[in-house]
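hiii so um. not sure if this is the right channel but i have a protein structure encoded as tokens and i wanna go backwards to a sequence. like what aa goes where. can anyone help
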């Protein structure tokens, strides 16, 4: 016995053994890597998206439903307003407004103090409208309340939005436009029917899905652990009351209950968190109650009572740490369910509201393209939902096996 105990202690604690067993599960490790990538994308947000505008909602109506890998030349025309400064933290959370208006074009040429661009049509058989811009108006924020832009010899004079007089050479302005204001923009996953970048929409949609899952699971854990612990430990009328409440909530279909709560709280981003979280605590409460009823009769609980510890100390500091294994497994499954429920609500139009991107909203907007040549517009968010749900389910299975200490190989200790 002493030798077995010594060998067992040398192998590490139960948490270390569980972690080692989890790392041996290749599917679980791969799922953790996928979720880690999704978390990084969600945290960095607009800092890494091709479209950094708020909600990734920059629309180019000339570029609707373009195939993945599509690229087009664009002219960056400076807006006639002061530059909007935003910190990295603000950009990370909310994006930033572009100081330029981007105009897709097929060809351009300079005409004196102006640049003439032909709007992009996507077809060689149809010529786009020509638009003329002053060179100074392309490069600088010109004040529209002063005397305007004047040509003096080979120079342009004008007032900027800060009422400062500027004088620029026409040749220098042309060179600046060619080098800095004419860009080639590529859409790696194409554009949707509004001309928005699909990749940016998917990346910001990752933030929405993970946020809904995390906050909803947190709400369900707080409610489920509290009610389950009270019911399992105190028993009696408290247990009967909580069990009655659990059975009432359990008897209502989850999606219908979420829809009812959503209608009561209103449509929106935060309302989805609360609605999903308030429907996922039941299973947590049932598991915690069952584990609590089993552990409350153990010797360490009786020892705590004999030492005069308060009930709440025994519950939260001695019993609950021994219950967290099954709760963690349930939380992984609930995380996947929360992502599915949020996508379903957004698809029905009662979840996250436009212009905020969501995988469910993208499915709603593009499901009609499945029978056309643009099925990828609906398949991409569908695949994203499937992969994320599958990753959390595989992690849940891996955690279930790793935390099951009864299956530890005892042959090493014999």
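sure thing!! here u go:
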């Amino acid at each position: 016995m002493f030798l077995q105990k010594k060998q067992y202690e040398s192998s590490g604690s139960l948490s270390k053994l569980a972690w080692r067993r989890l790392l041996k599960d290749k599917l679980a490790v791969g799922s953790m890597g996928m979720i880690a990538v999704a978390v990084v994308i969600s945290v960095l947000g607009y800092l890494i998206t091709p479209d950094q505008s708020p909600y990734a909602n920059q629309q180019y109506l000339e570029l609707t439903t373009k195939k993945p890998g599509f690229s087009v030349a664009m002219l960056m025309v400076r807006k006639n307003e002061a530059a909007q400064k935003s910190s990295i933290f603000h950009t990370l959370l909310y994006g930033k407004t572009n100081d330029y208006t981007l105009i897709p074009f097929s060809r351009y040429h300079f005409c004196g103090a102006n640049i003439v661009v032909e709007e992009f049509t996507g077809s060689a058989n149809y010529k786009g409208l020509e638009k003329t811009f002053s060179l100074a108006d392309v490069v600088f924020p010109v004040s529209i309340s002063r005397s305007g832009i004047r040509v003096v010899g080979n120079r342009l004079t004008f007032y900027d939005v800060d009422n400062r007089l500027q004088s620029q050479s026409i040749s220098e302005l042309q060179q600046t436009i060619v080098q800095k204001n004419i860009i080639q923009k590529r859409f790696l996953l194409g554009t949707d029917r509004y001309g928005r970048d699909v990749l940016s929409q998917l990346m910001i949609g990752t933030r929405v899905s993970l946020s809904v899952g995390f906050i909803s699971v947190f709400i369900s854990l707080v409610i489920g652990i509290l009610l389950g612990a009270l019911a399992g430990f105190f028993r009696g009328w408290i247990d009967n009351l909580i069990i009655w409440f659990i059975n009432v909530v359990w008897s209502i279909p989850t999606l219908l209950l979420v829809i009812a709560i959503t209608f009561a709280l209103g449509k929106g981003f935060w309302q989805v968190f609360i609605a999903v979280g308030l429907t996922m605590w039941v299973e947590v409460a049932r598991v915690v109650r069952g584990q609590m009823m089993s552990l409350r009769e153990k010797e360490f609980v009786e020892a705590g009572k004999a030492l005069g510890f308060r009930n709440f100390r025994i519950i939260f500091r001695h019993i609950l740490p021994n219950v967290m294994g099954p709760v963690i497994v349930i939380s992984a499954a609930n995380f996947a369910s929360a992502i599915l429920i949020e996508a379903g609500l957004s698809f029905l139009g009662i979840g996250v509201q436009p212009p905020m991107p969501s995988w469910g909203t993208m499915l709603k907007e593009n499901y009609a393209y499945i029978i056309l040549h643009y099925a990828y517009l609906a398949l991409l968010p569908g695949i994203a939902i499937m992969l994320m749900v599958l990753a959390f389910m595989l992690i849940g299975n891996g955690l279930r096996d790793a935390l099951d200490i009864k299956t530890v190989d005892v042959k090493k200790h014999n």
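oh and The chain has a mean pLDDT of 86.
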